[in-house]
Give the backbone structure.
Amino acid sequence: MKNNKLKESGASMTVEAALVLPIFLFAMITVAYLGQMIKCQDEIQWALTRVARETSAKYGADHSSLYKSRSYYQMQINRYIKHTGISISLLESRILTENDEIDLIASYKIQSPFLAVPVAACRFRQRVHTRAFTGVERRDGGREKADCVVYVTETGRVYHRRRECTYLKLSISQIKYQDVGSMRNEGGGRYKPCERCCRNKKLFAQTRIWIANFGDRFHTSRSCSGIKRSIREIPISEVGKRTPCSKCGREDGE
C-alpha cells in the first residue's frame, strides 16, 4: 500500500514537472528576448546620436555635399550597430533640407524568437533631430548696404571677405597618439592636449586622436567643442583692429 502511494506521488510530480517546465522555459526566453530588445534599442539610439553629432561637426568644417546623402548616414550607422541581423531603414529621414537640420529617423523590426508561434515581428521607429554646425552667426540689424559684410573668428586677428576662404576652413585629421610629436600645424607649432576632452585621460601609443591644420591642440573626441571654429558675420565697420586677410581681405583693391 505504501509503495503504491509513493508511485502515485512520483507520477504526480512527473506530470506537474512536465506541465510547469515548458511554462518556465517560455518565461525565461521571453525575459531574455525583452532584455535583448531593450539593448538593441539603446544601441541604435546611441548610433543615431553619434552619427548626427559627428556629421554636424564635419559639415561645419567643410560643407561637403557628401553629408546630404542618405547612403552616407546608412553606412555610418551600420558601422556602429553590432546586431548585423537587423535591417535599419532611413527612408523617412530629412537631411539638410531646410535650416541646416539633420533629422534621422530609423525604422526597423525585430523578429520573435518563437518561430513556431505565428507572431508578427515587432516594428520600431527611433529618431534624432539636431542642427548642423554652420559656424556663422547672422546679424541682420538693419545695416546700410554700403556697410559690406566680412567674416571673423572669435580669436582671429584678421577679417575675411569670403566665407569660403581656405583660411576659415578647418582641415581635420585623425592620427595615432604616437605620431603627434612629429606633426605641426600651419604655423609650424606643436600640438598640446585639449583642456576639454583630454583632461585626466590616459593616452596610449595606438589611441586615435584628432588634429586640425589651424590650432595647437589635439583632441580625443571628434565632436569636442574645442575643435570647432566659430565664425561670425559682421559689418566691416566693426572689425576694430583686425587687419585684412592676406588671401581674401584685399580682393576689392583696398
Notes: Residues 26 and 116 are 12 Å apart (CA to CA). The longest helix spans residues 2-62. The helical segments are 2-62, 70-80. The longest strand covers residues 101-110.
